[in-house]
Every structure is written in C-alpha cells, then in structure tokens.
Write a structure and sequence with these properties.
The protein has 379 residues and is α/β, with parallel strands linked by helices. It has 3 domains: 2-149 and 193-208, Rossmann fold (3-Layer(aba) Sandwich); 242-295, Roll (SH3 type barrels); 301-378, Elongation Factor Tu (Ef-tu), domain 3 (Beta Barrel), CATH 2.40.30.10. It has helices spanning 35-46, 73-87, 98-114, 121-140, 184-187, 199-208, 230-238, and strands spanning 2-6, 9-13, 26-30, 50-57, 92-96, 145-147, 152-156, 163-167, 190-191, 245-248, 254-258, 281-286, 291-295, 301-312, 322-327, 335-343, 346-356, 363-368, 371-378. The strands form 5 sheets. The protein has a 6-stranded antiparallel beta barrel with strand order 14-17-16-15-18-19. Strands 5-4-3-6-9 form a 5-stranded parallel β-sheet, sandwiched between helices. Strands 11-10-13-12 form a 4-stranded mixed β-sheet, with no helix packed on it. A hairpin with a 5-residue loop joins strand 10 (245-248) and strand 11 (254-258). It is globular, with a radius of gyration of 22 Å.
Length: 379
C-alpha cells in the first residue's frame, strides 16, 4: 500500500500484487530518522516480522519558525529513515499528521503556558500521534503491531491477564515515564524491541550494519521549538503579545515587573531581572491576575499533589491507598509516596518527604519497582 497525504486529506492506494503475508505478523515501525528506531526496525526484521517503515511529518517549517524553503532537520530525518528502510528491504511511507500535531500538541503546549502550567509535549505526542493516529494507519495497513524505539518493556501478567509497562533495562535511557498513558488495548499491539538493550548495544548494532544514522546524536529538546526560547516560539506562533505584570511575594507585596507569564515556570531563578537580598524563585504563576509569585527555595517544597486525566496500567482501579515510588517530571528521581484514587479521574499522592517544584501541567508517574502503576497530569 502507498500513502499519499496533503493537509487533512490522506489517501490509501493499493499496489497491484501486494499481499498480506498471513504466515508472518506484520509490524508498522515508527521511524524517526534516529538510531533507536532504525535498530528497532532491524530487530523486528530479524525476528521474522513483515515490516513497514513509517515516518510522521509533524510540522511545517513555518510552524517551527523556520523559512518555508529551509531544509530543516525533519527533512534530513525522513531521508535517514528512508535510507535505513531501503537497506533493510522495507517499504517506507511518510504520513502527514501536521494538522493533528498542531491541534493536539502545539496548541496544548501554548494553552498550558498561557494558563500558568508547564506541559510535557512528548507525552501528548505519544498519546495522540504515535499511539493513536499511527495506530489507525497500522489498522488500515493490516498491521498487527506498532513498533517504536522507546526504551521500555511490555510484559503480560499471567494471573490478571493485564499487560504491564516496565522500565527499560538501561537506567540512563528509560522512557517509561512518557509512556504512562498507554491503554491495555494499545499495549497489546505495541512492541519496544530496545527495552532490554543498553544504548551502547543499539549503537553497535547500527554501526555493524552500516546504518547512516549509527552515530547520530539523540534529540535533546522539543522538536518544534527549533530556535530560541519557548516564549519566543509562542509569541511568534500566536502573534500575541503577553503583557507585563507584577512580581509579588507570598504576602502580595509588589517586588517588580515581569515580562509576561509565558516566560516563567515553577522553580525558575534565572531571568527574573530583579535584585533582592536573597535568591528568589518562581513559586506560582497566576494567569487570573497576571502575577508571578516569588519566594525562597524553601517555598518550593510541598509534600502532596493532585493529578487528573489519569491512566492506570497495572490495575483497573486503586481500591485502597498503595505505597509507590513517584516521579513528578522526566528527570526527577522517583521518591516514596502513598497514592490513592479519589474518584474515576483523580489521584492524590502524598510524599514521605516534601519534593521541590511540583509543577502543574507535568505528569506524575507511579512505580512499583520497575513496573508502571499509572499516572496523570498534575493540576
């Protein structure tokens, strides 16, 4: 099959003579152009799967603040993915999901900052693009699995029948945090071939097979913020000017003027532009009255949080409070806590020790050992 896409219209054309090999399971490989997805494709081919490579076009140059004619990294990524797919004898398609990415990820990113929250767009991209839109394409191509290069593992609990999401064995690359929103239906049809590998092993495999991206650097930042600061991207993208307002202390005293609430997030110290007798940090962003509250480092610590939009993996529901380790952002070291489900869509998490800079808009993810219990969005 061949996918042709332009804007919102996607057309599927059947190529004459193409067969769905019933003896082999078919897998749609999400190929970003990086080394991890390339090795994932290789491992699936080696395991005997009938593989199709797919690269998602997620944004236009102008969405990322680049000239339309600019040959940006996303085009290079497509060519790298195509090169690896060709070397493996796999068909490779490009799916244009730019409209959905703009609505589900970029707009959500901007809305969060406008409302005093700090989002994690990678989680939204996984939820709405990789494991929703790409699943739809996989179904249309009669694929049994969607495969990505994430460092995580999936197992099935023989006692409960539930699929479990576990950490990748490489502690330095584990990506289970950004995958907590996976449902049981999705976990049943996802594979993470790199979950049991070290990153160094993945690179060795790529090098030994001559993949063009074997030594390509990992992406380190948000893909659609190509240049400058997040606030610059938001203003350029929306065409809005976010007005100045007051910096205040915990008692409401005015300490100075800020440059627009989208420029500040909890725990921030740099870029405040005011002098004080002791270091000050952002402790709250108040969009209702356009103020940013500042305080000391001690003011950043809190022992509990509430999360909404929850997804549980290891169990259908938390009937009683449970002991877990929880992390409140991707680079946070998980900490002991007690978690309870307050209602169908709310978790309350109380830490044994106060945690620094718990931030609305980020995700809290709960762990039992190396197993993801579930998570939600901090509110």
């Amino acid at each position: 099959m061949l996918i042709r896409s332009s804007g919102k219209n996607e057309e599927i054309l059947c190529l004459e003579g193409e067969e769905n090999h019933s003896l082999n399971k078919r897998a749609l490989i999400a190929m970003s152009g990086g080394v991890d997805s390339a090795v994932a494709a290789f491992l699936m081919k080696e395991a005997g799967y009938d593989c199709i490579g797919a690269t998602m076009k997620l944004f236009a140059n102008e969405d990322a603040g680049l000239p339309r004619e600019h040959s940006c990294c996303s085009l290079d990524d497509v060519e790298d993915a195509r090169s690896v797919a060709f070397s493996l004898g796999m068909p490779h398609y490009v799916f244009n999901f730019a409209d959905r990415f703009r609505e589900d990820v970029i707009d959500g990113f901007i809305n969060a900052y406008e409302n005093g929250r700090t989002p994690n767009p990678c989680i939204d991209c996984n939820r709405y693009l990789k494991f929703k839109k790409l699943f739809q394409r996989a179904n249309e191509l009669s694929c049994d699995y969607v495969v990505t290069g994430h460092y995580a593992r999936i197992e099935r609990d023989e006692n409960t029948g539930r699929f479990l999401l576990k950490k990748g064995l490489d502690d330095t690359k584990d990506q289970s945090y950004v995958l907590y929103s996976l449902t049981q239906e999705q976990l049943a049809h996802v594979q993470f071939p790199l979950g049991s590998l070290q990153k160094t092993e993945a690179r060795r495999i790529a090098e030994s097979h001559g993949f063009i991206n074997a030594n390509k650097h990992d992406s380190q930042d948000i893909c659609f913020v190509q240049t400058g600061k997040y606030s610059d991207f938001i203003e350029s993208y929306t065409g809005k000017h976010y007005p100045e307002g007051d910096f205040i202390d915990r008692e409401g005293h005015v300490l100075g003027r800020h440059k627009g609430i989208i420029r500040y997030t909890i725990g921030q110290r740099k870029g405040l532009g005011i002098a004080f007798s002791q270091p000050l940090y952002v402790v709250r962003v108040n969009p209702a009255d356009n103020t940013v509250m500042l305080g000391t480092n001690e003011d950043l610590f809190s022992a509990e949080l509430t999360a909404k939009d929850i997804n549980l993996i290891s169990t259908e529901r938390l009937d009683v409070p449970i002991r877990v380790k929880a992390k409140v952002r991707y680079r946070h070291t998980e900490q002991w806590a007690t978690a309870e489900q307050v209602d169908d869509d709310t978790l309350r998490v109380v830490f044994d020790e106060p945690q620094r800079a718990i931030t609305a808009g980020q995700a809290v993810v709960l762990y039992d050992g190396d197993m993801v219990v579930g998570g939600g969005t901090i509110c």
